[in-house]
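hey so i finally got around to running both of the ones u sent me last week. sorry it took forever, my laptop kept dying halfway thru and i had to restart like 3 times lol. anyway pasting them below in the order u listed, first the sequence line then the structure token line for each. didnt double check formatting much so if smth looks off just lmk and ill redo it

first one:
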Amino acid sequence: MRTLVLNAGYEPIAVVSDRRALVLVLGGKAAMLEADDTVPLRSTNEEFSRPRVILLKRYVRIPMARRMPVSRKGVLRRDDNSCAYCGRFANTIDHVQPRSRGGRDSWENLVACCLRCNNVKGDRTPEEMGWQLLRRPAAPVSHGWHVRGVDRESSEEWAPYLAA
């Protein structure tokens, strides 16, 4: 069984095992909002309801929650696998300002690029090539939250807590 963990502000932050959730509840760090009584958790002396949703009593600050880390897969997904220079299918990434000239690995400097454009551009800037970017690269827009392993559509029991 899996348990949804809500921060003190009711935003979802994690999915943990039902046993870990019960430890948080019994330790006074969380309150149980919903329980599943069909198959209880048993100790030698007691029976406990399985937590389905718990709420942390103190707010936990999540580092880097606002900014997604840069990755090749993320750049291709952001640009919808289309080349920033010609618009064809892209399967590589390119530094707009080449790394050899001080270009960094950042959302604002990386674009999806087809293999042909990437090889032709080489170690030059788009301005030196006389090329225009079809869209300006930027950090992807956050959709509020993301909990690994949880889809908003496939979690009916958590739907009231996952509403945007």
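and the second one:
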Amino acid sequence: MWNEKNLFTGCVDVPLTNKGVEEAIEAGKRISTLPLDIIYTSTLIRSQMTAMLALTQHCCMKVPIVMHCETEQARTWTQIYSEGTKKQSIPVVKAWQLNERMYGDLQGFNKQETAERYGSEQVYKWRRSYHVRPPNGESLEMCLGRAVSFFKEHIEPQLLSGRHVMVVAHANSLRSIIMYLDKLTSEEVINLELSTGVPMLYMYKEGNFIRRGSIIGTSEAGVYAYSESLAIYKQTLGETTQ
């Protein structure tokens, strides 16, 4: 909602607009027939709204269950004890490391007014350079450090075990992860633009990430040709829905 007002948002916890809700639902339709085992989101509500709205479109009909591991008591109180129910659920893991880049003292200020006050060149450096940080905020390099470290420590092991993972985060935390996946330089990532609500598909094979780009529509059966496991899943899906 602050993007709509042209305000610096960063880590301020602001929800989606109606357009954002529509984009999340459309994104869900685009991935509705892809296999899905676990979801990672940031701790910010706009990321979690996006994940939940997208899941309403998924053909698996599984219930997303937000994992609470803040304390041992939280972990115990939210434990599922039925194995049957676990099979009909998708765990959703929240991680602050996937939060948007923290814009420090700029958060809440109008972007145009900030450019008029400090100069458009200075604001451009704060927003788009790799090393420069806003006043009391994070540089893209700092955001990358936490996001990529979390990806390596928590998400890659899931991929190694053969699980299908969805990551729902923000422009800068996702740019950071894509920089790692695509082996981009600090100069290349500065010009990387991401469209909101458009899923990106990566295949993980033998320790390597292969980018397949965005999924254009729900009827694109060709996406399943990217791997044998996806092709088998597509065939199984067809058998269970006939």
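quick thing i noticed on the 2nd:
Residues 140-160 form the longest helix (21 residues).
anyway thats it, ttyl
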